[in-house]
From TrEMBL:
One of its GO terms (molecular function) is hydrolase activity. Pfam families: M20_dimer (PF07687), Peptidase_M20 (PF01546). This is Peptidase M20. The keyword Manganese applies. PANTHER family: METALLOPEPTIDASE, PUTATIVE (AFU_ORTHOLOGUE AFUA_6G09600)-RELATED, PEPTIDASE M20 FAMILY MEMBER. The Mn(2+) ion enhances activity. Mn(2+) binds at C106, H108, E142, H169, H368. Keywords: Manganese, Metal-binding. Its cofactor is Mn(2+). SUPFAM superfamilies: Bacterial exopeptidase dimerisation domain, Zn-dependent exopeptidases. The lineage of its organism: Bacteria, Bacillati, Bacillota, Negativicutes, Veillonellales.
């Protein structure tokens, strides 16, 4: 039985060093070039064979040399276009982004450092487990053409069999030293949209000679709100919002076009699919009513991030045995969305939450916030919990004959 705690404790200094390096040098979605070079160099040092998948990320393989399960472990790499505040909720941060205008304001720096540490421990102790572990470092989780789809396509095209999978997301409202492992839906599905409405510009004194795209948008917005109230069960969770509306610049000039963007979040995929369908139908109808046309500039759909119940139960048991039952934390699902939902739709597994809230150092600001910070003590817990779960999977080899993977082509056409 691998002495997980002993091995993790020995790696804590390097774990923190890695996290701070990634934090100081963030790169935005689909521009994670230096980040990937850094990761590849570490994998090379660890003698972990790896390949870079174009527009996808990095896949590394740790082979124990003994037959058994193959488990995929994943981390995301991209940062956000957010200028970092050097002060968190109460104190100066331990480290701050050196790439002005970008920051790891969601915690992906913690994800990468944990996965590299887990990979190092597994690679150095292959005599203590059997099977294979695939390390997956994903590009562009936040924005752009999603890297996860290309990685999944590569696995499918090369007939790389995966028995189960794992990922974690650090979470601002869970204390350091705690892990939350939930059954079923843990992060919401999402429908992202960016839409242009075309009309005919003119002077504010003669709206009858113009076709105002703003009128069409207002009618669309009202109808969409009515649909939400009529068609979604009150005991189902579905929210949507407009995050961007751009139209005109002067009070007496009717613009020729306008653009709006937003997102919908849900925990029932049928609700999400219906919302997307009705979104297009209502937009088409209201634009036609006002003599406008519309075009989708950007559209992406992600399923609900759903934990496999067998995997979640095994993970809680493994964490309890390794860290003690007090390490498990009760929390609610998170309304944010995750591209790891695609991987969980293909392979049974879990996305665990790793606590990073630490009043002692001032962390606890929400994600995608300039004051966001990581309580680094939580990363140690994350590494130990991940290893406990993965090693338990490799040992127990649960029966997943009931699991029916989603069709990859169907999922990717919405990305």
């Amino acid at each position: 039985m691998m002495n997980i705690k002993k091995y993790v404790e020995a790696e804590v200094p390097r774990l923190i060093e890695l996290r701070r390096h990634f934090h100081e040098y963030p790169e935005p979605s689909q521009q994670e070039f230096k980040t990937m070079e850094f990761i590849e160099n570490i994998l090379k040092e660890l003698q972990i064979p790896n390949i870079r998948v174009p527009r996808g990320g990095i896949l590394g393989t740790i082979d124990s040399g003994k037959p058994g399960f193959t488990v995929l472990m994943r981390a995301d790499m991209d940062a956000l276009p957010i200028k970092e505040d050097p002060v968190n909720l109460s104190k100066p941060k331990i480290c701050v982004s050196k790439n002005d205008g970008y920051s790891h304001a969601c915690g992906h720096d913690g994800h990468m450092s944990m996965l590299l540490t887990e990979g190092k421990i597994l690679a150095e102790h292959t005599d203590e487990w059997e099977g294979k572990v695939i390390l997956m470092f994903e590009e562009a989780e936040e924005f752009g053409e999603r890297g996860g789809g290309h990685l999944l396509q590569y696995l499918a095209d090369h007939a790389i069999h995966i028995d189960a999978c794992f990922s974690t997301h650090v979470r601002w409202d869970i204390p350091v030293g705690k892990l939350a492992i939930l059954d079923g839906g843990v992060m919401s599905g999402a429908f992202f949209f960016r839409t242009k409405i075309n009309g005919k510009g003119g002077h504010g004194s003669r709206p009858d000679l113009s076709v105002n795209p703003i009128d069409a948008f207002l009618a669309f917005s009202t109808a969409l709100q009515s649909f939400r109230m009529r068609a979604v069960s009150p005991d189902h969770c579905l929210t949507y919002s407009f995050g961007c509306i751009q139209a005109g610049h002067e009070p007496n000039i009717i613009p020729s076009d306008m653009m709006f963007a937003g997102s919908c979040r849900f925990f029932n995929d049928a609700d999400g699919q219906l919302f997307r369908e009705k979104f297009h139908q209502i937009l088409k109808n209201e634009c036609a009513n006002f003599g406008c046309t519309s075009e989708m500039i950007e559209e992406q759909y992600f399923t609900v991030t759903t934990n496999d119940i067998t995997c979640a139960k095994l993970a809680r048991e493994a964490v309890s045995a390794s860290l003690g039952p007090e390490a498990l934390y009760q929390t609610e699902p998170w309304m944010a969305s995750e591209t790891f939902a695609l991987t969980l739709a293909r392979y049974p597994g879990i996305l665990a939450f790793t606590g990073i809230m630490d009043p002692e150092i001032g962390s606890g600001a929400n994600h995608h916030n300039a004051k966001f910070d990581i309580g680094e003590k939580g990363l140690t817990t994350g590494v130990e919990g991940a290893l406990a779960y993965v090693l338990s999977l490799l040992k127990e080899k649960p029966d997943f004959s009931y699991f029916h993977p989603a069709d990859l082509a169907t999922m990717l056409k919405f990305m």
